[in-house]
Design a protein that fits this description.
This protein is mostly helical. The protein folds into 2 domains: 20-76, no CATH class; 87-334, no CATH class. The protein has helices at 27-48, 56-72, 89-98, 100-109, 114-135, 137-149, 159-174, 176-207, 214-242, 272-279, 283-299, 305-329. The termini are far apart.
Amino acid sequence: MSANEPTFQAPPPPPMPKEEPKGVRPAKLMIAGIVIVVLGLIVILMTVTKLIVGSIGAGAFMCFAGIVMVALSFIRRPAVPQKEAPLSVAEKAMGIFFEPSRVFRNLREHPNWIGAFAIICVLTAVYNFAFVRRITPERIVDHTIQKMSEMSPPFAPPPEQLENIKNQQLATLKNPVQRVAGFISSFCGLFLLGAIVSGLCMLGILIFGGRINFWQAFAVNLWAAVPVVAIQKILGLVILYLKSPDDLHPILNQETTLQDNLGILLTPSEHPVLFVIASLFGLTSFYLVWLRAKGLHLGATKASSSAGWGVSIMIFILTLILVTIFTSLFSSFIT
């Protein structure tokens, strides 16, 4: 080999593909889940020691919800390039009414949902507290027990258990400790329902060829529900005190007294299933469908407008089917 001949050099290795950045895990949700599990165990212990009556089911449900929260805390938030700072809770609460597109675009980068969840919980608790005081626990429980006694097997409880069930329900509505446990249990139910709907939305967006993180879908669903819940609960409170308690139904009006749907054209006692189906076709229902469609389009990492509408309509149809089945099985409760 001559001195002037160049030496052989191996070619450089090909560049390694860049690893996609990973979002952070919501560690605070794990702490909240552990707290809920502990509270559920306390409720169960208080029930076993006879300090409160008939709340083992509520305590077990709280434990289950807490375990789900801990499991969801391992799902990472989306690693989306942040072009703007996160909006405050007040800005999102006002903007979701007047500038929903801005709020949903911000949720794409910052899927913060605690504020929406807190607003929904507070409005729900205030309305529920006022409704029970206005209608009275006795009337609510008497109506429920009467309808339970009219149920056909296998759903009807044994007649000898009805009095015990009545006492437990009265204690639940009158005992402050059990009222608090009931509120916490209902808040856990709201969280689980939001998680289920968000999972379906994420699956639907993926089917339509889009891309969305679970927490993006969760934040979109909760913030889309805020205006609807606010309208139903606030106007429902006004109507609750304008109308006579005798004109209010102890079951049908537990969520709201607002009548903005086609259910006003039917009589519940004559056509219970048709009444409930018609009740889903209303202004606030369609408002929620529109908000969810817009939110899934703008709040997802990648999703077309048609994908948002397709998933939102799918959720509405699924709700319609489930409500129809449930009403068919327990139609006596709304008559």
